[in-house]
Amino acid sequence: MPGGVRRYLRGFRPLRARGRRSPTSAACCIATGRICSSRPCATSRPIGRVECGLSETCRANTWPHSACRTASTSCRPSRRSARGLKPARRMRCCCWWAITSPAGDTTPRSSSTCGRAGRSFASRRRRTATTPSCCAASRRGESSSPGCGTPPPSERACERWPTWPRPIRLASWMCRPSCSRMTGGRWPASWPRCCAARLGAMSRWRRTQADQIDMPTVLAVIIARAGSKGLPNKCVQPLAGRALVEFTFDHAFSAESLDAICFSTDSPEAARLASQRGIFVVDRPAELASDTAPVSAVVRHAVTCFESAHPGFRSDVVVLLYGNIPLRPAGVIDRAVRELIATGADSVRSVAPVSKQHPDWLHRLEAGRLVKFRENHVHRRQDLEPLFYHDGAVVVVTRDALETPPAHSADFHAFFGRDRRGLVVGVGDTVDVDDAADLRLAEARMSLRPVAPVRIGAAEVGPNLPAFIIAEAGVNHDGDVDAARRLIDAARSAGASAVKFQVFAASRLVTRKAAACNYQRRHDDRATSQYEMLRRLELAPDRFAELSEHARQVGIEFLATPFSPADVRLLVELGAPAIKLASTDLLNLPLIDAALETGRPLIVSTGAAEASEITSAVCRLRRAGAVDRLILLHCVSSYPTPPGEANLRAVRALAEQHRVPVGYSDHTREVHTGAVAVAAGAVALEKHLTLDRTRTGPDHFFSLEPADFAAYVRQVRETEALLGDGVIRLSAAQLEVRRLARGCLVAARDIMPGEPLTHENVIVKRAGSASSCLSPIELPRIVGRRAAAFIPADTPLAWSLALAAPVDAAP
C-alpha cells in the first residue's frame, strides 16, 4: 500500500497490531461498498458505495483503482497507544468519504449523510458549516456546498487537481478550510486541515500537510550517554531545576511532525526520567556508549529496537536529537522535517552562520609566528564569505540514507546520504552543552527569554503586569444563589479582578461513603461525608447562568472550577474566559483533556503535588500545545496554611523551571500574604472570600470577609507600586533633593588671585540652590590650577574662577 494511505490508516491497523484495539476502533480501510478487513468491528461501515470491481485488491490492502476513491468510517480509534507513541486522538469523523463515478463526476453529500457528521458540525466551534467541495461545481466557480467536502474526482474536474502529487489523491476530504479565502472555486494557498485526518497519532501539522504530500512516518531518536569526559553524566546535570535531557524531551513532544519518540542511553537516571514521560527507552550497549562509537550505529540500533518492540511500525524518516542541547530554535524540528519532505533530500541538518571564527580570520601558529589559515584580504565582517556550521539542533535523515553503508571505515557521515541540505538558524539560537561553562551559558540564556503573558478576558496576566486577583467564592454561598450574588458584589467592591465559584454535581464528584477531611468536619458538624456536604453546597446549572450574567452586569470576570468534563462544557456555554483546575485534579486526565479542548487559558493549582507530578502535568499541556495559555498557581493544600508552610520562594522556582506565569493560591488567614507573594514574583492570586467568617461550612473559617479582602487587594496594589518596573531613572520627585542636598566644591577660606587651588583651600560642602557649582567629581581636575580672581570663603567654585595654568607657571 502506498505510504499516503498507510499514514491515514495508522489510527486503525497499528493499533490492532499493537494489541490495543478499542472495542469501537475501525477496521475499514478503503471501501468499495464493503468492509475491507477480515475482522471488522461492529461499527465499521463504508458510507459511500461505488461499483469498482476491485474488491480483492481492496482486501489485499493495496491502492484501489482511480475510479474507487471512497474511504469512510464513523469509529473512534483507541486513545491509547504503545509506549513512545504519541497518544492516538479520537477521530472527529463527519462522513469521511468521496464517491467517484466512472464518468468522473462527483456527488457532494450533506453532513447529514453521516450520523455523526451533523452533530460534529453543529457542536464543534472549529468546524465550518460550509466546507467547500472541489469538484465540477468548484471548477465552474460556484459557491461552496454545505456539509461534507468531496475530493476532486479527476484531473478534468478541478483545474488545480493536476498540481497535487498523484500518490495522495485519497485523503481526508472532510475538511474545514476558511471559506472566505476561496475565490472562483479555487482552494486557498494553504490547504485546509482535515478533521478526518485526526486518525492515530497524526499531529496538527501533519493534518495540514496530509493532502499535499505522501506523508512519511517520522521517528525521533534522542541520544545521550553517561560517560561524557567534559562533564560526566551531563545529560542529567541540573539546569533551571531540571535534568538537562528533559529539555530535549520537551522539544520532541512539542514537535508536531513526529509520530513516535525513543531514547537511547546507558544512563539509568536518564532512562528513568524518559520512562516517566512515557518515552520508549532503548538500553544502549557498552560498545555503542563509548566516545568512539559512530552516531549512525547508535541511531540504527535505536530504530531497530523500537520497531522490534512495536510490530507494524516502520519509520520512513528519522529525526536525531542530541540530549545535551537544552536550547533549540522554536519549531526547528518541524521545519527540518518539512524541508526534507519538500526537497526529497537524503538529510537536513540545522546550521548557523559562522561569525568571528570565520576561516578567513583564522591563523596557524608555526614556531610562534601567525600564518593565515587561507590567504585573503577581507577586513570587514560584511565582506566575509557566508559559511555555516552544524549547530546540533536537529538532524533529519531518510531511512534509506540511514542504512547506507559507509564507503570506508572512517566515513562516519555516510548516513547523511548524497543530497545533504541545510536549514539556517540564528547565531546563538542553539546551546550545545559540553562542559560546566556551557551549562552556565544555557542557564543565562534561559533566564533572558521572556515569559509571555496570558490573556484572561480583558486582562493580561504575566510578569511586570498588575496581579490578577481572584476572589474565591467557592462554596461559601452555602447553596444559596442570593448569597452567591452578594459574594460577586463584594468581590467587585473590593477591587478583585475576577470572582470564582466551584461547579460540580456531588453524584459525579464523590462516592456516597467518601469521608470528609478533618478540617471540614471541625467546621461543619453536618459533614459526615463528602457526598452529604457537597450535595448541600451544589448549585444547579441554570443558577450559574444567572451568576455569570450578574458578574457581567457588575463588571467583573466570572470564573469557576469544574470537576468533571460535563462541568467544563457548562463553563464553555457560560462563556467563562478561562478554566481553573483544582490541585486535586492535577493528574485527572479526562478533566484535563476536556479543559484542553476548550482552547481557553488554563489556571492550574499545584497543591499536595510532588515536583515530578507538576512537571508531568506541565509536559502534558506542553505536548498539547497549551503551555502558552497556562498559568500555574503555587498552592499549599492546608486549611488554613500556617505562615511557615507558605513557601513563597516556590513561586519563582516554578517560574524558572517551567517558564510560564506563576501565581499563588493563598489559603492563609492573613491579609498581608498576597502582597508578599507579589513581591516574591506571583502574577496572580487566589484568595477565599466569605460574607461571614463565623458561618458553619468547610471554607468560611479561613476566608476573608469583604472589608479584609478589600485591604488584601489594597496591600497588593501598594506593593506593586513599591516594586515599580525595575528601571533605574531619575524621577521628578528626586530633583529637589538632588539640587539642594548634593555637595559641591567651595572655597575653604579666602583665596587670593593667582593662588594655587589645593586640597586645603578647596573642600566639599552643600551649597543649597547654587546650580552652577562644580561637582566633587571634578576635584582632581581643579586641584593644581590657580585662582583667576579673588574667591571669598564658602563661594561655590566654577570653571571661570580657575585658570588652566599649572602651579609652577608664572602668574
3D architecture notes:
- The protein is of the alpha/beta class and 811 residues long.
- The protein has 4 domains: 214 residues, no CATH class; 231 residues, Alpha-Beta Complex (Spore Coat Polysaccharide Biosynthesis Protein SpsA, Chain A), CATH 3.90.550; 234 residues, TIM Barrel; 72 residues, Type Iii Antifreeze Protein Isoform Hplc 12, CATH 3.90.1210.10.
- Helices cover 27% and strands 15% of the residues.
- It has an 8-stranded parallel beta sheet with strand order 16-15-14-21-20-19-18-17. A 7-stranded mixed beta sheet has the order 5-4-1-6-10-7-11, sandwiched between helices.
- Strand 4, helix 8 and strand 5 form a beta-alpha-beta unit.
- Helix 13 packs parallel to helix 17, helix 13 runs parallel beside helix 23 and helix 22 packs parallel to helix 23.
- The radius of gyration is 35 Å and the shape is flat.
What is shown here, in short?
With 811 residues, this protein is an alpha/beta fold.
CATH architecture of the largest domain: Alpha-Beta Barrel
> Which stretches are poorly predicted, pLDDT < 50 over at least 5 residues?
1-208
Q: Write down the overall geometry.
A: flat
Strand order of the largest sheet: 16-15-14-21-20-19-18-17
Main sheet specs: 8 strands, parallel
The portion of residues assigned to helices is: 25-40%
| Structural class assignment | alpha/beta
